[in-house]
Amino acid sequence: MSNSQPFVIKTLKKMNLKGGTVIDGFATTGITNTIASECILHSINTQLIATIESSYFSQLSVVRNFIPYFPVRIYANEELKTSIFISEISIDPSLYFFIGNTMLNWAKDNECDLIISSSNIVNPSQQTETINSKEYSIAGIGNTVGARNRLKDLKISLLKNGTIGGIPAVLLNQSSELGIDVVILLVKIVEGIPDFRAAAELSTTISRLVPGVSCDVPLLLQEAEKIEKEIAKIKTQDTESELNAYG
What we know:
Blueprint: E1 8-11, E2 21-25, H1 32-43, E3 47-53, E4 62-64, E5 67-69, E6 72-77, E7 82-87, H2 96-109, E8 114-120, E9 127-129, E10 138-142, H3 145-153, E11 157-161, H4 166-174, E12 181-187, H5 195-209, H6 217-245
Parallel strand pairs: 2-7, 2-8, 8-12, 10-11
Antiparallel strand pairs: 1-3, 3-6, 4-5, 6-7, 9-11, 10-12
Helix pairs in contact: 1-5, 2-4, 5-6
């Protein structure tokens, strides 16, 4: 495996996803994105269609209902033309560029029209252009006029000035020549409020952007604490395995 191609996508099932949407479930800041993506994944009857494998990933197997899974996977619902990238391991920041481009290339190869990602807002001084006069705890940025219009049509505030980091930054910067709309939803995290509360609002906003996609929010709120503990445990094991590797 060369440095120029650090990831291998193994296709398990082919689906027609032309004109569809890709949801980024990688956690760049916090686990809000992962929780929201998991909720949507289980609410719209998706199927596992691919795994992403790499020697750069911590080598873990995630066991669910007796079945072992690769920690980085792609699920999809062909009827809704919606696919979801899910990661249950911590990703080193040095890999963000490769992951972002892997997602963009996969979306292009499958003729998808839209990628939705998210990031937590960590700078309260960032400015947003408020649509009408209503305050939203979810803001957004789009890479094209079309992407920004998707947000405006739903009366979602647009980021006027600020910075975006991580995988969402790669998606914004590298997508201009691919003909794919990229929308980054900015989650305004409030200190002291659990990630799953923001995840519920994030998943609801994604549902508004993608017709037919839904999240069982009441169930999410019931299961949120358990999900947070599971993800935290996996990340702890991930860190411990790295420490053990270095003795």
